[in-house]
Amino acid sequence: MLSRRSIFVATRRSLYASFHSSPARLAKRKVIQQFRLADIGEGITECEVIKWNVKLHATVQSFDPLCEVQSDKASVEITSPFDGIVTELLVKEGDVAKVGEGLCLIETEEEHDADVPEEKSSSEPIIEAPLVEKSQHAPNRPSSKPHPLDPSYPPAKPRADVLATPSVRHFARQKGVDLTLLTSGSGKGGRFEKRDVEAFLTAKAEPPIAEDQEVELGRTRFAMWKAMTKSLEIPHFGYSTTLDITKVTEMLPILNAHIPSIYRPAPDSTSPPSVSPYSILPNPYPTPQSDLTTHFSRLTVLPLLLKTLSRAMQEWPLFRSSISSVPDPSSKQKPTITIRPHADISIALSTPTGLYTPTLTGVDTMNAYQIMGRLRRMQALGRQVPCALGLSEMPKRGGTLTVSNVGAIGQGEYASPVLVPGGGIAIVAIGRAKWVDVVPQDGVGPTKRRLQVGISWSADHRVVEGAELAAFVETWRSWAEHPERLIGEGI
Could you list the residue ranges forming a coiled coil in this record (predicted)? Predict the structure, then answer.
């Protein structure tokens, strides 16, 4: 019994002593791999990075899409050849990378064998960790297939829907256009050109109305609706002709060179003049406080036409009158008109909130600069939202004549203005002025180059006769075509 136990112990010790270990342990280390743009063939030397599919510090696996590059011939999706973490993007979207240039840095983990020193046999047994095959720790790999950057990889087919040069793609990206939304390119082989992107932007800027919209008229437009409906009660008489404003325009350079300081914009320099006419005595006519809304730097033809029109109105009291009462047709009372001492002229003014007709009162008492200042103030108040025109600009009784300067907007020469109740007894539309060659009335002599403007009148035929309107227009002509007459009365 004793001898058997001794043999067993000796045998076990001999068994352990007969083995010695040289274990191979697996160790991991981090390595930064630079991923370079490989040659994708067809003689391409550079590509534009269109889009990165990964972000910084993102984890990627092999064959995960990294980025999309575009050459002049095709668009290619680049996938990752490594497992790891993206630590740096070396090329930004929209930049061009040369073949062989690094695109990004990927941090990977590599496994290697760490040699352990061999231990000699001893009398004591050595307990070893079981050897584990390296393949047991390796993740399951997909079936082997060539990487897109491998020379044996089949070339990618060009995507016809995004075939464009880097410059066109850059232009589309600047304009916020996704080329995949475009149907087809107009270039060779369906390639997108810059004009395709511009055409897409034009079509996008004008979207079609999907359905009808019902919009209620605003307060100002509804007032115009009612006024124009009432205008059907007025029998209109129309009269059109032209005015020669050549001499009026010849006066403008001199008048613009001497705009009063109260109407001029503030000068850049505030230093006083080196020589003053009031060095001995103070100025008996100090410049009043200036209204910024009345400032202007250039006098136009309209104030001079209004001034000459007011002179004609002074000669024709009928056109300084307004209808004061319209009795019931069944009564025996007769209508009355009120003749005003001064020329009150209303101006048709289009504003963001609708059509208004502010009134210039006493135009015959103002000079051309004052009229221009009042017009500028009306325009400034009318452009505000809501409209800032008040009772001082829009008196209740309005003007006796209305002027619509339609020529300032379009190319029209004539119009058919509509007279509304309470809008006076006549309205005139001033068209676009144009240069024409005029033949003398007697047909003798050379033609002359003259600046003419078309005027279109509509008058209330209940009050104004056709002959009276024609004669009144001729009176206006005598002032407008001979503005020298204003000098005698002070312009």
Answer: none
